[in-house]
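We examine the record.
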Amino acid sequence: MKGSGKCRALISEEEEEVIYFDEHKDAKYIVACDPIDGSSNLDAGVSVGTIFAISRLSDEAMKDGKRPKVEDMLKAGTDLIASG
């Protein structure tokens, strides 16, 4: 995501804080993901993977290259660009 130059920040259940890609201040997208890797999943014999959501930042949130606030990154499901 960082190497693409399109992602401004990554939100992960695995991290306490938002991961910002400050070298891409004009990037328009936010990715939220949650790895499905719990041991209870493995015991059940089901596949593991990652769930994700991609959303676009508003022009206001991108203003002056500042870091978007958490509130800027919270989107309704109907506003997502992609998810899986």
